[in-house]
């Protein structure tokens, strides 16, 4: 199963024209695998946060996930697979 994993930094409602519906956008920051050679630890993906940002429509967000920081490690996180 492949996920697009990101965290939401900002939620914005943007009105361009009064006659058109507003845009509901989220500013997101992406995660990626920490290592290509060992992408999993105890069947949980090992992740790192990237310096990559995008705006997406809020309606495109499908699920909420649980990201856990790996303590005593810099920029390393786990996706908790055990709460699904």
Short structural summary:
By secondary structure, the protein is an all-beta fold.
Description:
With 84 residues, the protein is an all-beta fold. Helix content is 0%, strand content 50%. It has strands at residues 6-14, 23-33, 40-41, 44-57, 67-69, 77-79. Strands 1, 2, 3, 4, 5 and 6 form a six-stranded antiparallel beta sheet that branches. It starts with 5 loop residues before the first strand and ends in a 5-residue tail after the last strand.
| Overall mean pLDDT | 89
Which consecutive residue ranges, at least 5 long each, have pLDDT under 50? none
Instruction: Supply Rg.
Output: 16 Å
The level of helicity is under 10%
Question: Keywords, please?
Answer:
single chain, 84 residues, mainly beta, six-stranded antiparallel β-sheet, 6 strands, 0% helix
List the helices and strands and how they pair.
Elements: E1 6-14, E2 23-33, E3 40-41, E4 44-57, E5 67-69, E6 77-79
Antiparallel strand pairs: 1-2, 2-4, 3-4, 4-6, 5-6
């Amino acid at each position: 199963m492949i996920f697009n994993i990101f965290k939401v930094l900002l939620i914005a409602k943007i009105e361009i024209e009064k006659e058109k519906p507003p845009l509901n956008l989220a500013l997101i920051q992406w995660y990626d695998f920490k290592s290509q050679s060992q992408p999993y630890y105890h069947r949980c993906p090992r992740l790192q946060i990237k310096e990559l940002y995008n705006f997406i429509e809020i309606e495109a967000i499908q699920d909420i996930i649980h990201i856990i920081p790996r303590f005593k490690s810099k920029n390393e996180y786990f996706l908790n697979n055990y709460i699904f």
